[in-house]
Structure formats: C-alpha cells, structure tokens
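Please fill in the sequence for the structure shown.

STRUCTURE ENCODING:
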C-alpha cells in the first residue's frame, strides 16, 4: 500500500499540487518576465526530482513525485493552477494560491498529521527553491536581488499557511 492509497482522488490531487501552488505563489509575487518564469518553473521541477531521488520508496514524497512525473499528475497540477489563475491578477492568484495551500494543509493536518509535517517541509523547500531560481529587478540580467521583498512576504505567508494548527 502506498501513501497515495490513504487519500481520495481529490485529496491526492491537492497534495500533488501543493508544492506547485507554493511555487506559483512565489512567482506571482514578483513576476520576472519570461526568462524568470522559466527559471522559477525549472526550480519547481528540480525540487521534485531532487526530493524523489532521496525519498524512501512508498513515502509521501516518493508517491507525490511519481504521481507528478506521470501525465495524469502533471495534468492535475496544471488544471488546479489554471483554476487559481483564471480571471485573477497575479496578486489575486498568489493570494488564492496561499489560501489553497492552507486548505490543503488543514485537510492533511486533520487526516494525517505526521504526513502534514513532511509535506509542509517539502512545500517550503520548493517555494524557497523557486524564490532563489531567478534574480528579481534586474536590468538586462545585471543587478537585482536573489529574493525580492514581495517574494519574502509570500514565503512568510506560505509558512503561516502550512504551519500546524494551534489551539
């Protein structure tokens, strides 16, 4: 039995989307043009591949990565992101992405708290990788900063969204 088998299809799709939703939120916080978007997207995929390479077989991260590497998994992530973006500005879509993360993590904290901790760390690592993937506010590739203030704020919002509930 894999970790995936513990969840409904809808719950699993949300779990698979979570790292990509976090990465999208960071990208939306400070869109850096086409080159920056490509670099940040590559940061998301690299994060999944690196995590899968070191994850124990049958673990949450192994199952999540294997699902994402399938056509079905990529389509679930893509369709979920499309729903977040549709009709929204980048700022609104970023806010919706953080809210989606919070809803996913609340579900996971309720259903499988031990897995929530694992997913939270993976989501945070992915978001940080995306933030570090491209320099922001550059001019012809010169200057700029690795992580902008808007991205730092979004990372803090993600941290709050993925935190274990208190009380």
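FILLED IN BY: designer on duty
SEQUENCE:
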């Amino acid at each position: 039995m894999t970790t995936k088998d513990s969840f409904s299809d809808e719950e699993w799709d949300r779990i698979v989307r979570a790292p990509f939703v976090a990465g999208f939120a960071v990208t939306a916080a400070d869109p850096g043009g086409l080159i920056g978007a490509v670099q940040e997207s590559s940061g998301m995929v690299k994060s999944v591949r690196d995590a899968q390479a070191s994850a124990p077989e049958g673990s949450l991260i192994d199952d999540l990565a294997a699902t994402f590497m399938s056509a079905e998994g990529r389509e679930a992530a893509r369709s979920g992101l499309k729903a977040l973006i549709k009709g929204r500005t980048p700022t609104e879509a970023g806010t919706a992405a953080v809210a989606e993360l919070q809803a996913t993590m609340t579900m996971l904290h309720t259903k499988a708290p031990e897995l929530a901790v694992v997913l939270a760390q993976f989501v945070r690592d992915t978001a940080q990788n995306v933030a570090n993937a491209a320099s922001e506010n550059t001019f012809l590739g010169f200057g700029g900063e690795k992580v902008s203030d808007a991205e730092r704020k979004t990372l803090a919002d993600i941290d709050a969204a993925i935190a274990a509930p208190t009380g």
